[in-house]
Amino acid sequence: MTTHTSAVSLGLTLLLASMTTWVAGQTTYSPHSRFGFGELQSGAGISQFGMGQMGAAWMDRHHLNTRNPAAAAFLTRTTFAGGFQLRSEKIMEGDSATQGEIGGLTQVAFALKKAGGKGAFTFGLQPWSNTGYDVSQIRTDDTADEYQIAYAGDGGLTQAHFGYARKWEGTRFERFESAEGEVVDSLRIIAHGTSFGVRFEQRFGQLLRTRSIDIANPIFLDTRVETKDTHRSLGLTVGFGHERLLGKTFDRDRKLVSSTLLRIGGIAAIGRQHTLDRQNQWSSFQTLSTGPIEIDSVHSSKETFVLNLPLSWTLGMEIERNTNDGLRFRVGAEVEKTPWSDMGSEWLDPGVTFSDLTTASAGASLTPRSLDDAKSIWERSTYQIGWRHSEGYITLSEGQLAANTWSAGWSLPMRGSRSGSSFNVALNWRTLQAGSSELGLREQGFGAMIGFTLHPFFKNQWLVTRKYD
């Protein structure tokens, strides 16, 4: 009987992807996730997170870049990326503070690429936004005396994607001269490579929000407003990546032993039409000793908003240095812009508006020795550090949302796998607040992500036709 391991592998990956459709569950306690689409996610994988979540020029041979659709063409073979995250978040306002822990899956992503090929298909699921909050405050009124206003919400939006990337390479001859200056040999080397990629994306999900007024005086009825927002949109993201050999050194056997590479890249999430179906229900409650009892559903309404999401673009640059003793060093930076102010704010809460989002990221990584030269796991591991700053997206009365994130990463190749698979860990520390007032609502969060980058098994050749008796 003849079969193809490629078909088996594809079936397994599709099955795993279908089992993880809940990947965009609640992974935040942020009160600021109440506004807009919730807390936006960068889309970076665990292997990218340690370097400031960079993605525009972050092109790796063994790890899948889940931000730039063109980067998959630089992979050496079929690749899977996924993992799990845990977060501890602390919310502060004035002298009061509260803390909680949450966790969930990160994105699940695949790149199907034949070893030595120039093209790659990518697909997967990843969270685009998250919502999760439960806050309240006590107020007093001359008529109703003391009452409590509470806000609660959960949900999130998922992004399912499918794309294709293609790479073109340019070569040149490297000539070797004798001591007398005569050309004695020549070698064709890859001098540069350029890739382009396109990714189709479907965003979908629900955001559930509740606002309630609980009046201490039993004469008055309590009220609750429940809002369910159902989101959906179909869009396109394009990307490019360019890698150029700036410097190189050869040994006596004409073997390349050191090199310097320059990478530049860009991402453009094309503006798209986004549909929001909103259902509101106003209810009245009477609080008894057994708890709140609904007296009447006062009013319900349905609305549909057609939103035009703005174009978002990212540009980045990276330099990689490889030495003759196996050390590898990478450093890069990128900037991202999204003109959210171009989109209408009529569907937001009163006093809340969109504002232009600007994000800057930088990161560096170090691998002390190559896999063949390393004598311990510490020498063959890769260590990362990164920083990311964002400002904008939502503006409140206190000012724009602003966040700073410091991150560190560690990647350990699985030596026994013979395929370049790795175990990845990323840690991050984030602060978020609106405006600069120390009396306003502030957030501090520590997160840990653990995951794997897996390459083909079955003798490392998933996409090769085989015969089975």
Reconstruct the topology from this structure.
Elements: E1 2-4, H1 5-18, E2 39-40, H2 46-49, E3 79-93, E4 96-105, E5 108-112, E6 119-141, E7 145-177, E8 183-215, E9 222-250, E10 256-269, E11 272-288, E12 291-309, E13 312-322, E14 328-338, E15 353-367, H3 377-380, E16 382-396, E17 399-413, E18 422-434, E19 441-454, E20 465-467
Antiparallel strand pairs: 1-20, 2-6, 3-4, 3-5, 3-19, 5-6, 6-7, 7-8, 8-9, 9-10, 9-11, 10-13, 11-12, 13-14, 14-15, 15-16, 16-17, 17-18, 18-19
Overall description:
With 469 residues, this protein is mainly beta. It has one domain (2-126, 139-206, 231-273, 307-467): Porin. 5% of the residues lie in helices and 64% in strands. The chain contains three helices and 20 strands. The chain has a 14-stranded antiparallel beta barrel. A two-stranded antiparallel sheet has the order 1-20.
Strand content: over 45%
CATH topology: Porin
Biggest sheet overview: 14 strands, antiparallel, barrel
Q: What is the total domain count? A: 1
Overall pLDDT metric: 84
What is the H/E string? EHEHEEEEEEEEEEEEEHEEEEE
Q: Helical element count? A: 3
Distance between the termini: 6 Å
CATH class: Mainly Beta
Which stretches are poorly predicted, pLDDT < 50 over at least 5 residues?
A: 1-25, 458-466
CATH architecture: Beta Barrel
- Going across the major beta sheet, what is the strand order? 3-5-6-7-8-9-10-13-14-15-16-17-18-19
Taken from the alpha-carbon principal axes, the silhouette is elongated
Structural class: mainly beta
* Radius of gyration based on Cα positions: 26 Å
**Fraction of residues in helices?**
under 10%
- The beta-strand count equals 20
